[in-house]
Amino acid sequence: MDSVLAFFKDVRAIASFRNDDKPKQRSHSDDTIKQRSRLGDTTSLDSPLENQTSDLIIVVMGATGSGKSTFINLFFDHEEAPVGKRLGSHTQKVNAYALPVDRGYQSRIVLVDTPGFDDSKGDDWEILKQISGWLAHSYRADTKVAGVIYCQNMLHNRWSGASDRSFQMFQKICGPAAARKIVLMTTMWGMMTDDHILEEREQELKAAYWKSMIKRGSVVRRSRLSRDAALDTLDYILMKNAYYPLLHQNEIVELGMSLSQTQAGRGLLESYQKLIGEHKREATKLREEGGSTQEVEEIEARMRKAGEALKEARGDLRIPRLWRVLFLKFEL
Fold first, then answer.
1. 79, 130, 156, 284 - which has most CB atoms within 10 Å?
2. By C-alpha distance, which of 237, 51, 221 is closest to 148?
3. What separation in angstroms does the CA of 121 have from each of 115, 117, 173?
4. CA 207 – CA 119 distance, rounded (Å)
């Protein structure tokens, strides 16, 4: 019984957590600032990374293969963030990298590399849990998310279902209020002989898919594998002084929601339900048209995987309701 009471005491403490509007500044001469670039992966959600309250976080997001790790490496003299050399994703965990302290910033700048949704080797629910856990830990450690960079691979000649899925999850994690500290980064410039094609694609993104975010204050920038340009983007974000939390951080920490209750979690639940329905229809059609057994089995395997993820997510959704009932009883 004592352990149960202690648990709910911790829940109340989390719910009452408040974040300052302005970051606490610290001089580079402070001996607590470590002169190293790699903070290590933060997939162990039992403890936050080596945060300092003066840290300013830049979260880098985007679909698989969008150039997130490549962009982060522009800030270093070597390949700090592993980059995938083959099809599929290399980043399978949330990793954080502190910039070398040589730019005159009064705070340590930490770049966070995140795995992409609709990942080739992972599961979207597991990816969301990793990102959610990292954001919650950093928020409780009183570090500030100064900005978010969303990378978009310009070599992709159309806005696919995977592109839309990734961008929707990104929006649900950040929330509308975060738009003014978001940079929509178009990548892979210079990879084609004629940039005119990429310029047309960029205009389409601005007019059709990114229009609402641009109206709220997000900006579009190009990554041309230039360190100076990357640093200019960083300076632009830091000049915003927009240190308020992301929507997902508020949902998890301030409101005490379970992952499935958040905007991102609910969106993923709906996506899984839709995906299962599509797989069922696809498998039925293949059987009726005499498709190969292997094709049907592959679709059924994907359907089972989506079903397992949906079951786990729904289980997560039920737990907080019990917590709230017990919490109210102990409060009475």
1. 130
2. 237
3. 10, 10, 21
4. 27
Q: Is 113 in contact with 253 (CB distance < 8 Å)?
A: no
Q: What is the pLDDT of residues 18-38, one digit of tens each?
A: 333 333 333 333 332 233 333
Cβ neighbors of 207 (< 8 A, separation 6 or more) are none
Amino acid letter for position 163: S
- Residue 236's CB is within 10 A of a number of other CB atoms, namely 14
Confidence of residue 84 (pLDDT cuts 50, 70, 90): very low
Confidence check: pLDDT of 263 > 50 = yes
282-317: per-residue pLDDT in tens? 888 888 888 888 888 888 888 888 888 788 777 766
Closest CA to 249 of 150, 98, 168, 141: 141
In this prediction the pTM is: 0.74
Q: Give dist(CA 180, CA 23) in Å, integer.
A: 17
Which residues fall within 8 angstroms of residue 262, CB to CB, at 6 or more apart? 132, 172, 248, 251, 252
Residue with tokens 């949906």: 310
Q: Which residues contact 303 (CB under 8 A, 6 or more apart)?
A: 276, 279, 280, 283
Neighbour count for residue 135 (Cβ, 10 Å): 24
The packing angle between helices 263-288 and 161-174, to 10°, is 160
Please tell me the total number of residues recorded for the chain in this structure: 332
> How many helices (H) does the chain have, and how many strands (E)?
10, 7
Structural contact between residues 147 and 218, judged by C-beta atoms closer than 8 angstroms: no
In order of 3, 61, 107, 175, the CA distances from 10 in angstroms are 11, 31, 30, 26
Residue type, 134: W
